Amino acid sequence: MTKSLPEFKYMSFDVVGTLIDFESGLTSCLQEIAAEAGVTIDGEEALTLYRAARYSEDASLFPDDLVRVYLAIAPDLGLPVDKRYGERLRDSARTWKAFPDSAAAMERLARDYRLIAMTNARRWAFDCFSAELGNPFHAAFTADDTGTEKPDPTFFESVFDFVAGEGASKSDILHVAQSQYHDIGVSRALGMTNCWIERRHAQKGYGGTIEPAEFTEPDYHFASMAGLAEAVAAARS
């Protein structure tokens, strides 16, 4: 039986893609560069190219890797192949916006749970994302902290060790994420209860997120963070 929402002590969160709208951040910056170059690009095509470039063998930590990614995809988009534009794409992460429902949902959830960030982004970028969200986190784990990236189980084990230090266990955590590949599949394999936030429910494909080898049916499923927050409120009423 799946645990009820009030039974959890913690909620852990994927940040980029679940709480922060990285797809809009990426495409907006690329479209600005395109406009300056006098060309037009399709946002979904850009995300498809991004996904293929981002998950290559020579990838480095995110979002620093966006410099390399830009140089890889610029020719196919008709954009100028110049490192300074790649640096501009990387630096745009500092101003990426949260989804409209994220900050309010996190504020509501923080009243009842200890919230843990689990992000493949580097710490400098996470600090910007956290500020955008209103700094709701009890603890945060980044690629800099863990030395690895999801879906590596080692990343999750760092969080398990942390909550163990507070007298809890992974069974006390609800893992919340939009990425089937990075989060939902591996959290299931590790015995966690999970919640899929299907941010692209009204769109086809996986956008800027790598497609999983197989789909994992989540324990909880919402189209937005607002949906999760409302379900928690209803369960606790």
UniProtKB/TrEMBL annotation:
Protein's UniProt name: HAD family hydrolase
Keywords: Hydrolase
Pfam families according to UniProt: Hydrolase
Database matches in InterPro entries: HAD-like_sf, HAD-SF_hydro_IA, HAD_sf, S-2-haloacid_dehalogenase
Keyword Hydrolase attached: yes
A GO term for molecular function: hydrolase activity
Species of the source: Rhizobium fabae
